[in-house]
Write a structure and sequence with these properties.
It is built from 14 helices and eight strands. It is mainly α. Helix 4 runs parallel beside helix 6 and helix 7 runs antiparallel to helix 8. The longest helix is centred in the N-terminal third of the chain and has 21 residues.
Length: about 375
């Protein structure tokens, strides 16, 4: 197969139209972070481009918009993970003299076998999904149910399979410790509001950093959040959740959130923002990784530790919400309605952990 040429990323929509008018079919790569586009020809041969009727400017714009919507179908974090996985696969193929794309099931199976013992099963399955996604974009669909892939994964699971790492559930007990170490300054006020809001709302990091002041509705007994985008809200319909006022001033998420907005003089735009070294609140919203760094820093100060199997991470706030709600007698339906879990099995995995830590039969043996 002829090597596919690479051209600079189109500088504008007009430039994209020009590229298309030159007989080039533009396909965006998996990740939005890359600064180039691949030029793909119908048969992989650049000479065939001359025989292809170039699209009109209007058609080219429609194609570009369609590709942009396709890119938006997956979360940025998913796209970044797919890009890293594909890069790893391409590097392995290059080292071993294989052609990465179009991907052959036997080559993918060999790649999985070479990586099998060093990675969790969920990582290997995601890598297959990334390779399949890239193959589909290139016009060569990959059969992920081919025995060379499916049976290799099954064999790896039986031979080397191990339980993936899970976030340590951070319950109300840990939240009190985390809240206590947040100092009175702007950064401390923000961190307390961020941690308590994330916990009380059972929010994912992406949902937390996407909050805007305009999407908050203050009520007498709490605050209502409008989540415009969510992992499980594929159609972008949006969902509202209610955070109730707490019983204690030091751990009330509603009071903490209001105090942060007032101290930072934020009346519009992103709720959670960076506080620079000079103690000034910036206009840009926090990144998802910043939430992780804030939690790890506060956990270290508070003496909240995880383990190798269950490390401290932002997802632990969400897991801790489910654990605490279950221990306090909240029903499955109420928990799922608040956490927005679509799978009862997934939500109950947290409940099983809570049951195990609460009342193990081993403690009733009279030993």
């Amino acid at each position: 197969m002829t090597t596919q040429p690479v051209v600079p990323r189109p500088r504008s929509a007009a430039h994209l139209v020009i590229l298309c008018a030159e007989g080039r079919q533009i396909h965006r790569k998996i990740t939005r972070e890359k600064d180039y586009y691949r030029v793909l020809y119908p048969s992989g041969n650049p000479m065939d481009a001359a025989q292809t009727k170039p699209p009109t400017a209007r058609a080219a714009m429609a194609l570009a918009k369609a590709q942009a919507y396709q890119d938006a179908a997956d979360a940025p974090s998913t796209l970044r993970a797919y890009a890293a996985d594909l890069k790893n696969f391409e590097a392995w193929c290059a080292r071993n003299g294989f052609l990465a794309l179009p991907a052959a099931p036997e080559i993918v199976g060999a790649y999985l076998a070479a990586a099998g013992e060093g990675y969790a099963m969920q990582t290997l399955r995601r890598r297959v999904a990334a390779i399949a996604r890239a193959s589909g974009v290139a016009g060569h669909p990959l059969d992920t149910k081919h025995p060379a892939i499916r049976e290799t994964l099954r064999g790896i699971g039986r031979t080397h399979g191990s339980r993936g790492r899970r976030s340590a559930a951070l319950t109300t007990t840990e939240l009190k410790k985390l809240s206590h170490v947040c100092e009175p300054g702007l950064a401390g006020v923000r961190d307390r509001a961020l941690l308590l809001t994330c916990f009380a709302g059972a929010l994912r990091r992406s949902e937390l950093v996407a909050l805007d002041v305009e999407r908050l509705t203050w009520l007498n007994n709490g605050v209502k959040l409008l989540l415009e985008k969510s992992k499980t809200d594929k159609d972008g319909k949006g969902v509202e959740i209610m955070i109730m006022a707490g019983r204690h001033e030091g751990t009330c998420p509603v009071a903490a959130l209001r105090r942060w907005l007032e101290a930072a003089a934020i009346t519009t735009g992103p709720v959670f923002r960076k506080v620079n070294k000079a103690g000034r609140v910036e206009t840009r919203r926090l990144s998802e990784d910043a939430v992780r760094q804030i939690l790890l820093r506060r956990a270290a100060q508070a003496g909240v530790h995880g383990s190798l199997a269950e490390p401290v991470s932002p997802h632990g706030l969400r897991a801790g919400f489910v654990t605490t709600a279950y221990r306090n007698g909240v029903s499955d339906e109420e928990i799922m309605g608040h956490t927005r879990h679509q799978s009862l099995t997934t939500m109950r995995s947290y409940v099983r952990r809570a049951k195990l830590s609460r009342a193990s039969p081993a403690g009733k043996l009279g030993l």
